[in-house]
Input
Amino acid sequence: MIRNEKGSLVRPDPLPQSASRPVVTPLSPSVVYASDTPDALDDQYEGRTKGFTYSREGHPNAEVVAARLDRMEGATGGIVTGSGMAAVSAALLGLCKTGDHVIGGNQLYGRSLRLMAEDLPRLGISTTLVDPGDAEAVRAAIRPETRMILIEVVSNPTLRVADLDGIAKVARDAGVLLVVDNTFTTPRAIRPFDHGADIVIHSVTKLLAGHSDVMLGYVAARDPDLAQRLYVFAVTTGLTASPFDCWLAERGMLSFDLRFDRTQATAARLADHLATLPGVRRVLYPTRADHPDRDRAVALLGGQGCNMVSFELDGGRACANAFTRAAEGLSFAPTLGDVGTTLSHPASSSHRALSAERRAALGMSEGFFRVSVGLEDPDALLAVFTTAVAEAMASRGAAG
Ligand SMILES: *Cc1c(COP(=O)(O)O)cnc(C)c1O
Output
């Protein structure tokens, strides 16, 4: 150790000795890792020993999170990325080349849609969007140069359920990679690898981390060669995640199972409750009897639902404004999967770029809301919705 005469300089100070171990994963913010000798570094790079070198390539906190997600998804060699979109980008940009064709679900997450509509075509990768509820439409969209199909199991915000098994068969028959973004459903409800997916993606930002204080993503491939290509692409393009973000995400994930079970149970109750309220035109929840994809949801999600409920209020924007104003304690914020219930209004946020006609065709009027149910007391939460819907309807009366 090198010191000045006051004893203050510089690295490294030895860690205090302890015969006992920390219970919590230590945070390891070190960007670099020192080796003993060039031979030792050789051993590490050649895989004879295991160790870290530079944190863009890997660090303990990322490995801990990746291992946990791998266990949950039944994967090996998954990679933690700096955001969900970094994971989507790694799969699309890291595995496709100019001349390839990619098929995407027509209700993908907004930024994924943008990649499909703008960025892949700019790189000479053509794209087709299809209804993932219709495996035959996916089959019809396959071309000789099709490389990949990207779908979400449950769509945002209309909560339609993809024909995952049908599309997996189409992908298998055509020798095309099936990529499943499992953010909404989570491995608690479905493990896409068990249904024939080749690649699974998460925005860990949402339910898995669960506290809206960290952005993180995950991508895993079934085939080790593809996993290695994803890893190299993520390291090269700097898509990998910071130690502190991984540390926070791990902390959030410790309670994920409990949060998922609680929030999806409350969401199912909220959906049934909303359906009884005057002024609620329709309710969308995958396992409700009136949902168009109910049978598929029950079969695919094994009795689980999701923590999301969508519904449509009578009346236009003014009613929507009155509703969010009256929905006391609920954040009107464009995210999901938080410990607190959040409301999203697609017409003014996620889907604002679409024309009113296009939104109407997708079933998203000015009265359309998506709810991400949190951990509040279920009875108290239902009461907030009762009041807010009633006030929204009263505002309509007041306006004449
Ligand atoms: C939020 C989200 C993403 C993007 O994740 P970020 O962590 O925000 O980058 C991708 N897919 C789905 C389904 C999402 O909800």
User: Anything to note?
Assistant: Residues 256-399 form a domain with the Aspartate Aminotransferase, domain 1 fold (CATH 3.90.1150.10). The chain has two domains: 59-253, 256-399. The pocket of pyridoxal-5'-phosphate is lined by residues 83-85, 88, 109, 112, 152, 181, 183-184, 203, 205-206, 215, 217 (CB under 6 Å).
